[in-house]
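A quick word before the example. In earlier lectures we treated sequence and structure as two separate objects. From today on, think of them as two lines of the same record. Here is Probable protein kinase UbiB written that way.
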Amino acid sequence: MTFGELRRLYLIIRVFLNYGLDELVPKTRLTLLFRLWRNCLFWMPNKHREQPLGERIRLAMEQLGPVWIKFGQMMSTRRDLFPPQIADQLAMLQDRVAPFDGVLAKKQIELSLGCPVETLFDDFDIKPLASASIAQVHTATLKENGQKVVIKVIRPDILPVIKADMKLIKRMARWVPRLLPDGRRLRPQEVVADYEKTLIDELNLLREAANAIQLRRNFDSSKMLYIPEIFSDYGSETMLVMERIYGIPISEVVTLEQHGVNMKLLAERGVQVFFTQVFRDSFFHADMHPGNIFVSYEHPEDPQYIGIDCGIVGSLNKEDKRYLAENFIAFFNRDYRKVAELHVDSGWVPPDTNVEDFEFAIRTVCEPIFEKPLAEISFGHVLLNLFNTARRFNMEVQPQLVLLQKTLLYVEGVGRQLYPQLDLWKTAKPFLEDWIKDQIGIPAIVRALKEKAPFWAEKLPELPELFYDSLRQHKHLQHSVDKLTNDLKGERVRQNKSRYLFGVGATLLLSGTAILLTRPDWVLISAGMIAAGVVSWLVGWQKTG
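And the structure line, produced from the sequence above:
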């Protein structure tokens, strides 16, 4: 490890111990060495004993920076895995991270704009409206049209912190295959590389603006999801200006209920929005923690989501979408044989996998979760069981699906908060069945023909020339094949002659030598035979060339 990595590792350990997070380690015989090591670090005492454990976890993650804050955001959606006093504190990482100085933010905005803020905006609020791991937002009004907007600005000097943490994590990922028996199957370096790319991409607000514009176009006039308008003329890599939205945070369930929101429909639409993004558009918001999701005040009986912070998006190729959809449907139909076969066909498990054993293992994990409301299903435990199944059958982690898996956890967490009785399977199954039919039926053929029609119309005049070129290339290829065949035949003839002459030469040499040893008076005959054998060898050697 480099000195910088060791220093960062030391800082992480110090922060964890200063906040007393070693309390999370269970006191068992297996952790005895760790606890003895902890007692030796007497100069790193718990400095926050008076604060609750949940608050200490949140403060430690805030101090360590964006990589850890993102991890805390994901954990905050899993209220089935953490007690309320921890989950409530982690939820504050979604949009209530300690802000940086508003004066510094204004200077950074002016540097990006190339002019004072007052030139283009009225009512700029130096106090941030919200603050998160990567950036914070300030409210303002556009001078040109009076539009209420928010200005998002990247935290200063954040890139070195992210790179330092990711460098350390990548180093640790290289150790995983050496330390764990099935570490190579987990593909930790590829997963970490994808996560690093995601974080670095999130620092470029021009990319976020483009993502938001794409999502807004995908859900134009949709009753399910609204994406705020982006004002691209004012944007840069470190600054984003977008329409200010007014909605109820998705995490404020009591407020939603008081406002008369149809919670069942809202939860169902959350599932529908997710599957629509993944399968219809192949472009999904991959940072759907509650801090980025609101519900419009309008039409509470017909609720509409509002999505912000589109810095992280994911996409799947056609093959992955097809396999995922068929896997989901097979799960819904409890066709575990189909699930096992799809995993083999997709290459996610080795081709020599015993399908019958794999089918039985999947049934053992998944059968108990059906016909239960969402409140009774712990996907955390299901994923753990599937992980153990994967380890038995050498299933490789698919880096391209990591964002999707994370988003599924977010969707489940939000659904659990909104409407615990939601039947996730019943909501998703019709959508996926319709999607599969659309992909393999007559509409899919017609759509493919329409998509390819301009290409074929362009290539049609070239077909005679292409056909002639193909025939000519075939003729040249046939000529080359015939020449190569003749050359190979000639080479075989030469090789056969060479082997024959080597055999004759060896026979003459051995015979001449034997005669010389048994009948010395026949010296001329033996010398002639030996000479003939040498000549035969030389001629055979020449034939090999």
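Notice the following. The mean pLDDT is 80. We will return to this example when we discuss secondary structure assignment.
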